[in-house]
């Protein structure tokens, strides 16, 4: 039953080959042009760092190209779909297929299967290559393309909540129970709001379920008095992970790595909603390639000699680009907390899937 849904093997391979060659041809052209423009604007900064030369330029290109490919592959699938279907329509190949008894969905079936392969390839490419390139490039840009720093796990200027109180540490070295705090300030707050006092100490280490800081002194807001406390315990119930977990860049982690980071942050009491949206988008983003044949399908049908073929192609492009705008908007709303993570990642995909099906059924089925 499934095999009867597809056209013949010869036609399926022919359409799949047309679609893939046009898609990756357009992608190659886009990457070449966009990387050239990007390099013109960024090469000055790369070469401005002492000791940088041609090797660093090529290193920048090797790290930037995967990002460009990941960003513009769905656009290439859309344009490749429209170009393939326009060509087949202009050559009356679609008319021949429909005259042979194939429905619009059967005509599009080879493109949908090929786009599924592109989606799987995109997910693997993003997970294994783009995430690593993004992490390395971000770190390199943070030091203005200079020598890469060695990450020893040290963190600075970390804020942690302990009940109503806030704890701020200027420096954190080490991990787990061996974590050492430097420049610790505890802001004691009343349950209803308002600052009650401040405790400051230059050193702090893990002690039981809290943190022992020394030599500590306390400033009382009401009286203005300063009291020397020596050694004291603060932050009971605050785990070492709450201090040592750094900010997570979802784009710089693989799917499994981001899922583990979200679990760690949730256990430490950190907000994770925006990262959950990025995690879901690592699945919905690559699958957007499967939408493109459906959204660009209007270019496949209609009589080419009627003069409406160009208008149909424009409609297909408009639907595709409207999806990308809605996808970015929903993801931004998810990052702001306005949308739930699952909705931010999947709502545009499901919405335009229904729109594409409605247009196809209304006009061709």
Summarize the structure.
59% of the residues lie in helices and 16% in strands. It has 365 residues and is of the alpha+beta class.
Layout: helices, strands, pairs:
Layout: H1 2-5, H2 9-48, H3 54-90, H4 93-99, H5 104-142, E1 155-162, E2 165-173, E3 180-189, E4 195-207, E5 210-220, E6 226-234, H6 240-244, H7 255-267, H8 273-287, H9 291-295, H10 309-336, H11 341-363
Antiparallel strand pairs: 1-2, 2-3, 3-4, 4-5, 5-6
Helix pairs in contact: 2-3, 2-5, 3-5, 3-10, 5-8, 7-8, 8-10, 8-11, 10-11
Number of domains: 2
Helical percentage: 55-70%
Counted by DSSP, the helix tally is 11
For the biggest β-sheet, the strand order reads 1-2-3-4-5-6
Average the pLDDT over all residues and give the rounded result.
86
Overview of this structure, please?
The protein is an alpha+beta fold and 365 residues long. Helix content is 59%, strand content 16%. It has two domains: 2-147 and 273-363, no CATH class; 155-244, no CATH class. The protein has helices at residues 2-5, 9-48, 54-90, 93-99, 104-142, 240-244, 255-267, 273-287, 291-295, 309-336, 341-363, and strands spanning 155-162, 165-173, 180-189, 195-207, 210-220, 226-234. A six-stranded antiparallel sheet has the order 1-2-3-4-5-6. α2 packs parallel to α5, α8 runs parallel beside α11 (341-363) and α10 runs antiparallel to α11. The chain starts with a helix and ends with a helix.
């Amino acid at each position: 039953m499934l095999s009867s849904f597809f056209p013949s093997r010869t036609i399926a391979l022919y359409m799949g080959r047309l679609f893939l060659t046009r898609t990756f041809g357009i992608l190659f052209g886009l990457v070449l042009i966009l990387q050239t423009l990007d390099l013109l604007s960024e090469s000055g900064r790369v070469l401005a760092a002492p000791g940088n030369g041609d090797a660093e330029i090529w290193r920048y290109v090797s790290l930037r190209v995967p990002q460009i490919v990941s960003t513009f592959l769905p656009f290439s699938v859309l344009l490749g779909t429209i170009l393939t279907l326009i060509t087949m329509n202009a050559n009356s190949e679609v008319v021949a297929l429909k005259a042979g008894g194939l429905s619009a969905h059967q005509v599009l079936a080879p493109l949908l299967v090929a786009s599924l392969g592109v989606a799987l390839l995109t997910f693997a490419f993003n997970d294994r290559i783009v995430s690593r390139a993004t992490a390395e490039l971000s770190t390199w840009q943070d030091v203005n393309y200079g020598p890469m720093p060695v990450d020893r796990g040290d963190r600075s200027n970390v804020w942690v909540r302990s009940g109503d109180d806030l704890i701020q540490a200027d420096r954190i070295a080490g991990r787990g129970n061996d974590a050492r705090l430097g420049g610790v300030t505890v802001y004691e707050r009343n349950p209803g709001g308002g600052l009650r006092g401040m405790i400051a100490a230059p050193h702090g280490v893990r002690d039981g379920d809290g943190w022992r800081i020394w030599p500590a002194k306390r400033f009382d807001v009401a009286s203005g008095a300063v009291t020397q406390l020596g050694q004291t315990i603060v932050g009971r119930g605050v785990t070492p992970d709450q201090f040592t977990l750094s900010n997570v860049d979802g784009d710089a982690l693989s799917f499994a790595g981001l899922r583990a980071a979200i679990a760690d942050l949730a256990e430490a009491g950190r907000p994770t909603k925006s990262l959950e949206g990025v995690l879901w988008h690592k699945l919905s983003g690559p699958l957007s390639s499967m939408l493109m044949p459906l959204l660009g399908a209007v270019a496949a049908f209609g009589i080419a000699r009627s003069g409406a073929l160009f208008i149909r192609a424009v409609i297909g492009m408009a639907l595709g680009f409207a999806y990308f705008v809605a996808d970015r908007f929903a993801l931004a709303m998810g990052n702001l907390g306005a949308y739930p993570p699952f909705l931010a990642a999947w709502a545009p995909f499901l919405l335009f899937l229904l729109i594409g099906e409605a247009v196809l059924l209304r006009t061709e089925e």
